[in-house]
Structures are given as C-alpha cells and as structure tokens.
Design brief:
Blueprint lengths: L2 E7 L6 H12 L5 E10 L6 H8 L4 E6 L6 H11 L5 E5 L1 H14 L2 E6 L7 H13 L5 E4 L2 H10 L5 E4 L12 H11 L6 E6 L8 H10 L7 E6 L5 H10 L6 E5 L5 H4 L4 E4 L8 H8 L4 E4 L4 H4 L7 E3 L4 H11 L3 H13 L7 H17 L3
Parallel strand pairs: 1-2, 1-4, 2-3, 4-5, 5-6, 6-7, 8-9, 8-11, 9-10, 11-12, 12-13
C-alpha cells in the first residue's frame, strides 16, 4: 500500500521536533513513503528558519496562513490540502498540530499518529496548552513517546487501550565544517586555550533549571578560575537570570548569547555541556553534544539515564542539587584531559542505540501497522 504522510507542526525554529522530522525524511527516503510537511506561516513574518530549511532542501511544504491567534482560516486551508492530495496518514507534533490532526482524521478518515515530546510548566498559558494536549492525545490511532517517562504518561492518558510506542530520538554523526564561523566566535568571545568553556543550550524557561546552575556557580565562584559558561537560548526567564548573574557578580563567568541558528559552530568550542533541567523528554542537545565528542553533565530527568552511563560517558546528578552541581563544576573545570577522554567515550557510546536509520525504520513500521493491520 502506498504511504502518503502529512506531517503537521507549528514551529518557527528547527528545535528538537523539527530536527526529528527532517531526519525522518532523510533516512526513510528508500522506504516508499511520500511526505508533505504542513506548518503555519503567520501574517507578520515573511519566512522563518524551519520554512527556509524545508524550501532549501526541496521538501514538499504546505503553508497554513494565519492572521491572528484565534484565526480559524488555517483549518479550512488544511481541508483543501487534504482534498487535493491522497494522504492516508496524518502525523502531528504539539498541541495545535494535534488539534488539526484530530479534526482531519475524524472528517477524512485518515490514520492519526501523534508524537509527544514532553510537557512543560513555563506559565499558566503553557499549562493550559498541555492540558489540551493531554486530552487530544487520547484519540490518536498511535502515539509515540521519546522517553520512558513520557511513554508512561501516554499510557495513563490513553488508559492502556490504544497503541503507544517508545521511540528514542536519534543523532547523525557530527559533520559541521564552517571553520570560519567557529573562528569568528572564538575571536568575538576572546576564547583562550587555558579556559574551560561550558555550554547550556535551550530555551530559558523554569523547567530548564538555569537558576540552579547560576546558584551553583555563585557558591564556588572563587574556585572557578578559568571557566566561562555560555547560556545559549532565549525565553521567559531571560531577564530574571540576567539579574541574578549581575547580583552575584558573575558577568565574567556567565555570558548570555540568545538563540543561535548555527549551533554547530558553538559545539566546536564547548568543552562541557551542562543540562541542569528539572524535566526533559529525550534531549536532542545531549545527543548532539556527545556526537561532537563533548561530555555532558546532566540532571537525572527524562531519558537522560538512557543516554549517559554515569561516570563512564558523562555525569548525572539529581535536579536542584546545587551542592553536587557546584562540586562537579570545580572538579571538571580543572581537568581538561578528563573532559576530552570522556567526550570520546560519549561519541562512541551513541550507536547503534540512537541510529537515525533505526528510528526511521520504527516509524515507517508504525505507518504500515496503521494501514495494513488497521491499528
């Protein structure tokens, strides 16, 4: 049976879900699956990172044009896209995409596969969105989780009566080659060979735990002689975190760099990735760092312990443990050779468990199950 998949996602950037989608298309090109990505283009934006990547890579793309937040025109635009194509599967990522997928699956009889990448508690609005998300996720024909914790949540939400799978995120071997960009960053930041550069990459929201890292650095700042921590990302906590850095007089050690769309250049200068999160699914940033031979110090959240074997290919501590985090920062900031050794082990430990070929096979198998076995 011919498999025609419409993937719906509402995003402006190539975050974790977006990377997973583009990776899926790349590694299932020989599986006889036809894909079209459907995303929302807002009135006040000409384009965005996600759309540009799709267009530059000649990926079939359908745009839903939305003028304001509660604009319902994208629903009718989506109906037209469905009518003019022969889709038999709709795949969704995120609450707004789940809502659209729910509607078209009911109206046009498409099989619906939902992907859940985790739940956050940034603010009341986001909590409301995730409440809607948890309601919609009950109704998809097949749900996919990216970590054991999310899988357990989905099984509860779906009352163990509908098909649910656990498929880990995957990672390609690092192939970043823009040396000019890397050198530009080194020059701009005045990076010295004697420094240990630590990176925190992700949105600045409460569940990412940046404040506990800042508190830890403050606790042992007199012992951290040659480190710099690059906080890469933006979000609702940015101003609060900057105030705390200034209050603790850490500006010489902690630098805010906002969101960066060419993150590969930063992986080339980072010696240690920090993940102080309070909750995660399976964080792509950990896989990306390890694929670049960068060791990771992370909290024991989500599927982190499925990636990191504590002390062997990275380090795991408990969330909010400021004392332990501070202790690790001191230890690792004075041993660059240890970081390099663990970094190599980290890269070698990724495969085949996090192979993109294996992930693509599992997802295509779900397509076949839904269509052939009516699951």
């Amino acid at each position: 049976m011919k498999i025609n998949v419409l993937i719906i996602i509402d995003t402006k950037i190539i975050g974790g879900p977006g990377k997973g989608i583009f990776q899926l298309l790349k590694y299932s090109h020989d599986k006889k699956v036809n894909y079209c990505i459907c995303t929302i283009k807002y009135r006040n934006q000409k384009t965005n990172e996600f759309i540009e990547y799709a267009l530059n890579n000649k990926i079939k793309l359908a745009l839903l044009k939305q003028s304001f937040f509660f604009d319902i025109k994208p629903i009718f635009q989506l109906f037209e896209i469905i009518k003019n194509n022969e889709f038999n599967i709709v795949q969704s990522h995120g609450y707004k995409s789940h809502l659209l997928a729910y509607l078209v699956s009911k109206i046009y009889g498409l099989k619906w596969i939902s992907f859940s990448h985790g739940f956050t508690t940034e603010d009341l609005k986001v909590q409301m969105y995730h409440k809607l998300d948890s309601i919609l996720l009950r109704y998809s024909d097949h749900a996919v989780a990216v970590s054991p914790q999310i899988y357990a949540q989905l099984k509860t939400i779906r009352k163990n009566t509908k098909h649910t799978s656990l498929i880990f995120n995957a990672i390609e071997s690092a192939e970043y080659s823009n040396e000019n960009k890397t050198q530009e960053i080194i020059k701009k930041l005045n990076v010295k060979n004697t420094e240990i550069i630590m990176g925190v990459i992700g949105r600045l929201s409460k569940e990412k735990g940046h404040i506990y890292l800042i508190e830890s650095i403050n606790k042992v700042k007199t012992q951290l002689k040659n480190i710099r921590v690059l906080i890469i990302g933006d979000g609702t906590e940015e101003q609060y975190l900057k105030r705390k850095v200034n209050e603790y007089e850490l500006a010489d050690k902690v630098l805010f760099l906002n969101y960066q769309n060419e993150i590969g250049a930063y992986y080339k200068i980072i010696d240690l990735l920090l993940l102080p999160s309070l909750s995660e699914g399976l964080p792509n940033v950990v896989l990306e760092a390890m694929s670049n031979s960068i060791p990771v110090l992370a909290t024991n959240v989500g599927a982190v312990n499925q990636i990191i074997d504590n002390g062997k290919n990275g380090w795991i501590i408990e969330p909010k443990d400021i004392n332990k985090l501070a202790e690790c920062l001191v230890k690792l900031s004075s041993n660059k050779s240890l970081l390099e050794n663990i970094g190599l082990k980290a890269k070698n430990s990724l495969y085949p468990k996090f192979s993109p070929y294996d992930r693509a096979d599992k997802i295509v198998n779900i397509y076949n199950q839904c269509l052939v076995n009516n699951l």
